[in-house]
Amino acid sequence: MKIYRDTKNKGAVNMAVDEYLMLQSAAENEIIWRFSGPKNCVYLGYFQSAEQELDLAKCHADKIDVIRRQTGGGAVYSDSELTYSVCIPLGHPFLKSMGVRESYEQIIKIIIKGLKGLGINATFKPLNDILVDGKKISGNAQTRRHGVLLQHGTLLMDVDVEKMFSYLK
User: Rounded distance, CA 147 to CA 90, Å?
Assistant: First the structure.
């Protein structure tokens, strides 16, 4: 397994890095994790409409990059959270015979174990969320391409709700 930690890349760079890591993961038949910090951008889910989900004029005026992820899920304003991606070759023993629901649960359990090691009492909420004290601190989304499962996730560290919802509808 490989683990990378990035600095504050622009959102488009993060998506390009994830695309590259998917190909590397497939070629090396290896699990790859990547963690990165805040980007001050909006990540749009693969299937979402920017016009329906975002105040594009506000994003443009505030110079907030709008980036489409390779994975599905909802729009995320990335400002003060830790983001992660994990690439797992579809033939890897970790994924053996796992469907989408089970793969979410197993990957999220790894994140939860790390949080518990930090004294954070996190729990899994199907299909793809992590809760602390009944409040969502993490959402996750997946895709399967290039013979690899790619999962994106966030870990909310702090939130300016007013600012977030000035960009997200």
Answer: 6
Question: Does residue 151 contact residue 128 with C-beta atoms inside 8 Å?
Answer: no
Give the count of beta carbons closer than 10 Å to the beta carbon of residue 49: 10
- What mean pLDDT comes out for the span 153-162? 92
In the block, tokens 């300016």 appear at 160
Laid out side by side, the sheet with 129-132 consists of 2-5, 32-36, 81-89, 148-156, 135-145, 129-132, 122-125
pLDDT at position 7 over 90: no
Round the average pLDDT of the chain to a whole number and report it.
95
Distances in whole angstroms, Cα of residue 48 to Cα of each of 39, 43, 55, 156, 165: 20, 10, 13, 21, 17
What pLDDT is attached to residue 124? 98
Which residues contact residue 25 at a Cβ distance below 8 angstroms, ignoring those fewer than 6 apart? 31, 32, 87, 88, 89, 148
